[in-house]
């Protein structure tokens, strides 16, 4: 594979992976404006975010079997078309109820891109490169929290929140065109795979019964849900607790994303000396320590805006190390069922994120504690799952050079 081909593959796969996060981040600064325009509260507007997470959670389970049965591109095209139409619907929404429903539909469309991109990493690259490729994808994904809230803040202030969704629709169209003309077919459709409920469930059960998969996919999902706690809680924390405006919030969000992006890229350097398993262990322990210290500071009234930003920065650094390595370890045992494995991994991740975002939306009193408390719970639970789950792994597929030997592609 030439460097040019490699670059364009990473760019397109990264854009597919970033579509969902961009759809989340870009409208966050518009929460107060949406609440005012639709005659509701910011807490209820956050339910549209929870609805997006719910749509992704269930949608990924839908697309997993479709990607294995029909190949990667056809289900991807359908999903992107659904996304585009739903984004247009969101731009035209005139009630909070319709916005919530349309966000669920938009999420179902976007998760086709998420599942396909993860499965295609397993299709197109050897196992030994998967963790590095996921880190590179996070670099593209990382542009989302750097650009999306900042752009969203300025767009909302200048043109209103409806324009944000018109921009998202245009992005969906651009990505659809790129996948049609420049994304290769990476997987031959498996016509023997039945789409009847029983075989699909059996296929998912085959995947989930693999100890390495369930240990690292659930660990990664629960640890990553701390990021969702931050995303869901940050509009309330920064704009209502610390009284920043939409533009300042966008810049803070962009700055904090540097921690997430930077650590995911430094991960490739760490993998030269450490295994993915070792990096996950260290990152999770650090994540637990930081979140507990963060909560202690919040409960004792020690948090100022700068201190809060510092804690969040280092917390997100830990997530940037945990996710790509946990994802690579989860998918390493699979080749034939990579689509279903990717879908399950994504469903676990979004399911955990949904629970946290819904829980945070129930707290309408401005406070940092719900967000930080959720981070403590997610980090501690993830570490516990890892310590218990890895005891059941008897035949581990390593993510390192030579790991793909003997695996069918």
From TrEMBL:
Residues spanning the membrane: 45-64, 76-94, 100-121, 133-157, 163-183, 213-231, 251-270, 282-303, 309-331, 343-363, 369-388
Originating species: Dyadobacter luticola
Gene3D superfamilies: Multidrug resistance protein D
Similarity section: Belongs to the major facilitator superfamily. Bcr/CmlA family.
InterPro entries: Efflux_drug-R_Bcr/CmlA (IPR004812), MFS (IPR011701), MFS_dom (IPR020846), MFS_trans_sf (IPR036259)
Topology with respect to the bilayer: Multi-pass membrane protein
Alphabetical keyword list: Cell membrane, Membrane, Transmembrane, Transmembrane helix, Transport
SUPFAM superfamilies, per database record: MFS general substrate transporter (SSF103473)
Major facilitator superfamily (MFS) profile domain: residues covered: 9-397
GO molecular function, one term: xenobiotic transmembrane transporter activity
Localisation per UniProt entry: Cell membrane
Record protein name field: Multidrug effflux MFS transporter
GO terms under cellular component: plasma membrane
GO biological process, one term: xenobiotic detoxification by transmembrane export across the plasma membrane
Keyword Nucleus found: no
One Pfam assignment: MFS_1
